[in-house]
Protein backbone atom coordinates (compact mmCIF):
# COMPACT_ATOMS: atom_id res chain seq x y z
CA UNK A 1 0.00 0.00 0.00
CA UNK A 2 1.24 3.50 -0.84
CA UNK A 3 2.31 5.60 2.14
CA UNK A 4 -0.19 8.38 2.93
CA UNK A 5 0.52 11.78 1.48
CA UNK A 6 1.67 14.66 3.66
CA UNK A 7 -0.63 17.66 3.98
CA UNK A 8 -0.08 21.37 4.53
CA UNK A 9 -3.47 22.80 5.47
CA UNK A 10 -4.36 26.45 5.67
CA UNK A 11 -6.27 27.39 8.82
CA UNK A 12 -8.72 30.25 8.27
CA UNK A 13 -11.30 29.56 5.59
CA UNK A 14 -10.35 25.89 5.48
CA UNK A 15 -10.82 24.48 8.99
CA UNK A 16 -12.47 27.44 10.71
CA UNK A 17 -14.17 30.71 9.92
CA UNK A 18 -13.54 33.07 12.81
CA UNK A 19 -14.47 31.05 15.90
CA UNK A 20 -16.70 28.59 14.01
CA UNK A 21 -15.65 25.19 12.73
CA UNK A 22 -16.27 24.57 9.03
CA UNK A 23 -18.59 21.54 8.74
CA UNK A 24 -16.60 18.37 8.17
CA UNK A 25 -13.25 19.83 9.23
CA UNK A 26 -13.14 17.71 12.38
CA UNK A 27 -13.82 14.56 10.35
CA UNK A 28 -11.06 15.47 7.89
CA UNK A 29 -8.52 15.84 10.71
CA UNK A 30 -9.73 12.56 12.21
CA UNK A 31 -9.17 10.80 8.88
CA UNK A 32 -5.64 12.19 8.69
CA UNK A 33 -4.89 10.90 12.18
CA UNK A 34 -6.41 7.48 11.46
CA UNK A 35 -4.33 7.15 8.28
CA UNK A 36 -1.18 8.18 10.11
CA UNK A 37 -0.66 10.99 7.60
CA UNK A 38 1.85 13.72 8.33
CA UNK A 39 0.27 17.15 8.36
CA UNK A 40 0.71 20.73 9.47
CA UNK A 41 -1.89 23.45 9.84
CA UNK A 42 -0.42 26.64 8.37
CA UNK A 43 -1.21 30.26 9.05
CA UNK A 44 0.37 33.51 7.92
CA UNK A 45 -0.83 35.08 11.16
CA UNK A 46 2.11 35.53 13.55
CA UNK A 47 0.06 36.67 16.56
CA UNK A 48 -0.33 33.29 18.21
CA UNK A 49 1.82 30.44 19.46
CA UNK A 50 0.99 26.84 18.50
CA UNK A 51 -0.44 26.35 22.01
CA UNK A 52 -2.73 29.35 21.47
CA UNK A 53 -3.94 27.89 18.19
CA UNK A 54 -4.47 24.47 19.75
CA UNK A 55 -6.74 26.09 22.34
CA UNK A 56 -8.59 28.12 19.69
CA UNK A 57 -9.44 25.03 17.68
CA UNK A 58 -10.32 23.00 20.75
CA UNK A 59 -12.89 25.64 21.65
CA UNK A 60 -14.19 25.50 18.06
CA UNK A 61 -14.51 21.72 18.26
CA UNK A 62 -11.36 20.31 16.62
CA UNK A 63 -8.61 18.62 18.62
CA UNK A 64 -5.19 19.18 17.01
CA UNK A 65 -1.93 18.83 18.93
CA UNK A 66 0.25 21.94 19.18
CA UNK A 67 3.06 20.32 17.17
CA UNK A 68 0.76 20.21 14.14
CA UNK A 69 0.68 24.01 13.81
CA UNK A 70 3.19 25.96 11.73
CA UNK A 71 3.00 29.75 11.67
CA UNK A 72 4.78 32.46 9.71
CA UNK A 73 6.43 33.36 13.04
CA UNK A 74 8.00 29.89 13.27
CA UNK A 75 9.08 30.07 9.63
CA UNK A 76 10.61 33.50 10.25
CA UNK A 77 12.53 32.23 13.28
CA UNK A 78 13.90 29.27 11.29
CA UNK A 79 14.93 31.57 8.45
CA UNK A 80 16.75 34.01 10.73
CA UNK A 81 18.46 31.16 12.56
CA UNK A 82 19.72 29.82 9.22
CA UNK A 83 20.97 33.24 8.13
CA UNK A 84 22.49 34.56 11.36
CA UNK A 85 22.38 32.11 14.27
CA UNK A 86 21.92 33.67 17.72
CA UNK A 87 21.44 37.11 16.25
CA UNK A 88 19.55 40.12 17.52
CA UNK A 89 16.24 41.62 16.45
CA UNK A 90 13.92 44.50 17.16
CA UNK A 91 10.42 43.03 16.98
CA UNK A 92 7.10 44.66 16.26
CA UNK A 93 4.74 41.83 17.10
CA UNK A 94 3.11 39.67 19.73
CA UNK A 95 3.87 36.49 21.69
CA UNK A 96 3.66 34.21 18.67
CA UNK A 97 6.62 35.98 17.10
CA UNK A 98 8.69 36.80 20.17
CA UNK A 99 8.35 33.24 21.51
CA UNK A 100 9.45 31.78 18.16
CA UNK A 101 12.52 34.01 18.03
CA UNK A 102 13.47 33.25 21.64
CA UNK A 103 13.20 29.53 20.83
CA UNK A 104 16.05 29.77 18.30
CA UNK A 105 18.26 31.80 20.62
CA UNK A 106 17.57 35.30 19.33
CA UNK A 107 18.02 38.30 21.61
CA UNK A 108 15.34 40.98 21.29
CA UNK A 109 16.79 44.47 21.53
CA UNK A 110 16.46 47.98 20.16
CA UNK A 111 20.24 48.52 20.36
CA UNK A 112 21.83 48.05 16.92
CA UNK A 113 19.82 44.91 16.05
CA UNK A 114 20.75 42.69 13.11
CA UNK A 115 17.11 42.68 11.99
CA UNK A 116 13.88 44.58 12.33
CA UNK A 117 11.18 41.90 12.32
CA UNK A 118 7.59 42.92 11.67
CA UNK A 119 4.60 40.75 12.49
CA UNK A 120 0.98 41.22 13.49
CA UNK A 121 -0.02 43.03 16.63
CA UNK A 122 -3.25 44.46 17.94
CA UNK A 123 -1.39 47.53 19.20
CA UNK A 124 0.77 49.00 16.42
CA UNK A 125 2.12 52.24 17.84
CA UNK A 126 3.61 55.28 16.11
CA UNK A 127 6.59 55.09 18.46
CA UNK A 128 7.33 51.47 17.50
CA UNK A 129 7.04 52.15 13.79
CA UNK A 130 9.23 55.25 14.05
CA UNK A 131 11.91 53.28 15.87
CA UNK A 132 11.68 50.49 13.28
CA UNK A 133 12.21 52.99 10.46
CA UNK A 134 15.21 54.55 12.22
CA UNK A 135 16.83 51.20 12.94
CA UNK A 136 16.43 50.13 9.31
CA UNK A 137 17.90 53.42 8.13
CA UNK A 138 20.81 52.75 10.51
CA UNK A 139 21.52 49.38 8.89
CA UNK A 140 19.18 46.74 10.33
CA UNK A 141 17.80 44.27 7.77
CA UNK A 142 14.03 44.38 7.29
CA UNK A 143 12.07 41.12 7.53
CA UNK A 144 8.28 40.76 7.73
CA UNK A 145 6.36 37.63 8.60
CA UNK A 146 3.85 37.89 5.74
CA UNK A 147 2.59 40.19 2.97
CA UNK A 148 -1.12 40.05 3.86
CA UNK A 149 -2.46 43.63 3.63
CA UNK A 150 -5.50 43.00 5.81
CA UNK A 151 -7.12 40.41 8.00
CA UNK A 152 -10.24 39.69 10.04
CA UNK A 153 -10.74 41.52 13.33
CA UNK A 154 -13.40 41.53 16.01
CA UNK A 155 -15.27 44.42 14.38
CA UNK A 156 -14.38 43.68 10.76
CA UNK A 157 -11.37 44.14 8.50
CA UNK A 158 -8.12 45.37 10.08
CA UNK A 159 -4.74 46.37 8.57
CA UNK A 160 -2.30 43.46 8.69
CA UNK A 161 1.44 42.96 8.38
CA UNK A 162 1.71 43.75 4.66
CA UNK A 163 0.01 47.13 5.02
CA UNK A 164 2.23 48.17 7.92
CA UNK A 165 5.30 46.88 6.06
CA UNK A 166 4.41 49.20 3.16
CA UNK A 167 4.37 52.15 5.55
CA UNK A 168 7.80 51.26 6.96
CA UNK A 169 9.16 50.63 3.45
CA UNK A 170 7.99 54.03 2.25
CA UNK A 171 9.54 55.81 5.23
CA UNK A 172 12.80 53.83 5.37
CA UNK A 173 13.44 53.23 1.68
CA UNK A 174 14.09 49.53 2.39
CA UNK A 175 11.95 46.73 0.99
CA UNK A 176 11.03 43.94 3.43
CA UNK A 177 11.79 40.28 2.85
CA UNK A 178 8.48 38.48 3.38
CA UNK A 179 8.63 34.97 4.84
CA UNK A 180 5.02 33.71 4.80
CA UNK A 181 2.85 32.52 1.96
CA UNK A 182 3.08 32.87 -0.99
CA UNK A 183 6.86 32.70 -0.47
CA UNK A 184 7.75 29.03 -1.17
CA UNK A 185 10.28 29.37 1.65
CA UNK A 186 7.50 28.83 4.18
CA UNK A 187 6.35 25.71 2.36
CA UNK A 188 9.87 24.27 2.14
CA UNK A 189 10.61 24.86 5.82
CA UNK A 190 7.24 23.33 6.72
CA UNK A 191 8.01 20.24 4.61
CA UNK A 192 11.43 19.93 6.25
CA UNK A 193 9.75 20.20 9.64
CA UNK A 194 7.53 17.26 8.61
CA UNK A 195 10.44 15.39 7.00
CA UNK A 196 8.25 15.23 3.90
CA UNK A 197 8.88 15.71 0.18
CA UNK A 198 6.94 18.01 -2.13
CA UNK A 199 6.19 15.31 -4.72
CA UNK A 200 4.18 13.36 -2.13
CA UNK A 201 2.60 16.37 -0.41
CA UNK A 202 -0.61 18.33 -0.80
CA UNK A 203 -1.36 22.00 -0.12
CA UNK A 204 -4.97 22.57 0.94
CA UNK A 205 -6.14 26.19 0.98
CA UNK A 206 -8.88 28.67 0.18
CA UNK A 207 -6.85 31.40 -1.55
CA UNK A 208 -5.58 31.29 -5.11
CA UNK A 209 -3.15 34.18 -4.55
CA UNK A 210 -1.33 32.67 -1.57
CA UNK A 211 -2.12 29.02 -0.85
CA UNK A 212 -2.38 27.71 -4.41
CA UNK A 213 0.50 29.67 -5.91
CA UNK A 214 2.76 28.73 -2.97
CA UNK A 215 1.89 25.06 -3.38
CA UNK A 216 2.39 25.10 -7.14
CA UNK A 217 5.73 26.91 -6.89
CA UNK A 218 6.84 24.37 -4.28
CA UNK A 219 6.03 21.43 -6.56
CA UNK A 220 3.12 20.17 -4.46
CA UNK A 221 -0.31 18.88 -5.38
CA UNK A 222 -2.87 21.61 -4.68
CA UNK A 223 -6.48 21.41 -3.52
CA UNK A 224 -8.65 24.53 -3.42
CA UNK A 225 -11.59 24.55 -1.02
CA UNK A 226 -14.54 26.88 -1.58
CA UNK A 227 -15.27 27.60 2.09
CA UNK A 228 -13.08 30.71 2.24
CA UNK A 229 -12.44 33.74 0.06
CA UNK A 230 -12.32 32.11 -3.39
CA UNK A 231 -15.47 31.36 -5.38
CA UNK A 232 -15.46 28.83 -8.20
CA UNK A 233 -16.05 31.48 -10.89
CA UNK A 234 -12.92 33.37 -9.76
CA UNK A 235 -10.51 30.49 -10.42
CA UNK A 236 -10.37 30.86 -14.20
CA UNK A 237 -8.96 34.39 -13.92
CA UNK A 238 -5.61 33.06 -12.72
CA UNK A 239 -2.79 31.86 -14.99
CA UNK A 240 -2.25 28.87 -12.70
CA UNK A 241 -4.87 26.35 -11.64
CA UNK A 242 -5.20 24.02 -8.65
CA UNK A 243 -5.04 20.29 -9.22
CA UNK A 244 -8.46 19.88 -7.62
CA UNK A 245 -11.37 22.04 -6.44
CA UNK A 246 -13.67 20.77 -3.69
CA UNK A 247 -16.53 22.33 -1.78
CA UNK A 248 -14.82 21.74 1.59
CA UNK A 249 -12.20 19.60 3.31
CA UNK A 250 -14.99 17.12 4.06
CA UNK A 251 -14.77 16.12 0.37
CA UNK A 252 -11.03 15.31 0.42
CA UNK A 253 -10.21 11.60 0.34
CA UNK A 254 -7.15 10.91 2.47
What does this entry show, briefly?
With 254 residues, this protein is α/β, with parallel strands linked by helices. The chain has eight helices and 15 strands. The protein has a six-stranded parallel beta sheet, with helices on both faces.
Task: Give a written overview of the molecule.
- Helix content is 35%, strand content 22%.
- It is built from eight helices and 15 strands.
- It has helices at 25-35, 50-60, 72-83, 95-103, 126-137, 161-172, 184-194, 208-217; strands at 6-10, 16-17, 20-21, 39-43, 69-71, 88-92, 107-108, 115-118, 141-144, 150-153, 156-159, 177-178, 201-205, 221-225, 244-246.
- The protein starts with 5 loop residues before the first strand and ends in an 8-residue tail after the last strand.
- The protein has 254 residues and is α/β, with parallel strands linked by helices.
- The chain has two domains: 6-44 and 181-251, Rossmann fold; 85-178, HAD superfamily/HAD-like (Rossmann fold, 3-Layer(aba) Sandwich).
- The radius of gyration is 18 Å and the shape is globular.
- Helix 3 (72-83) packs across helix 7 (184-194).
- The longest helix has 12 residues, at 72-83.
- Strands 5-4-1-13-14-15 form a six-stranded parallel beta sheet, sandwiched between helices. The protein has a five-stranded parallel beta sheet with strand order 7-6-8-9-12, with helices on both faces.
